[in-house]
Amino acid sequence: MRNAAFLAAGLALLLLQSNLFRILGFLHVPGLVPSLVLPLILFMGVHEYSLARGAGVAFVLGYTTDLVGIAPIGLYTFIYVALFLLARIAGVRLAAQTTMMQVLLAVAFTLVESIMVLVLLAIFGRDAYVPRALYPLALPHVLATGAMAPIVFALARKLHGAIGAGSRAEAGGARP
Questions:
Q1: 73 pLDDT above the threshold of 50
Q2: Model's pTM, two decimal places?
Q3: Phi then psi for 35, rounded to 5 degrees?
Q4: Can you tell me the distance from the alpha carbon of 141 to that of 150, in angstroms, rounded to the nearest whole number?
Q5: Where are the alpha helices (DSSP H) in the chain?
Q6: Which of 55, 47, 61, 46 is nearest to 10 (CA)?
Q7: Angle subtended at Cα 111 by Cα 110 and Cα 117, rounded to the nearest 5 degrees
């Protein structure tokens, strides 16, 4: 149940993320569109969700990002699963409770995501100019994602608490 809720929230955040450039377009800052799905994946990794289920949700969200965006199929699929695993390894569960640590965690992982995208596009992309054209967009993207991370972490925490409490009550009631 919790995985379905996180998947639905991730898909809603992805749709919002894909249309955010229209809302933020008046600022005229290229790359200022945040990644709203990445903090959700970080939340799942930091809060030690099941490896198979968390990677599965990250896979579906990454694949959907590839389909909705203009990225090559498999780019964000690979990156989101890898970032989930890295967040799970990092395991800074207690440190991610404060807003400042959420912002720092999101900034660090978005920077890693941006570097991975640029490197993978440079290696596997058809046009060598694309990474050179995209790297100036990385810093505004990283800062925008860091700014939005506490909001997404708060949403994920509410989902985690609401669905988790119901799941524990159901599991406790099922035992003799």
A1: yes
A2: 0.84
A3: -90, 110
A4: 15
A5: 2-24, 37-46, 51-68, 75-90, 99-124, 129-134, 138-174
A6: 61
A7: 85
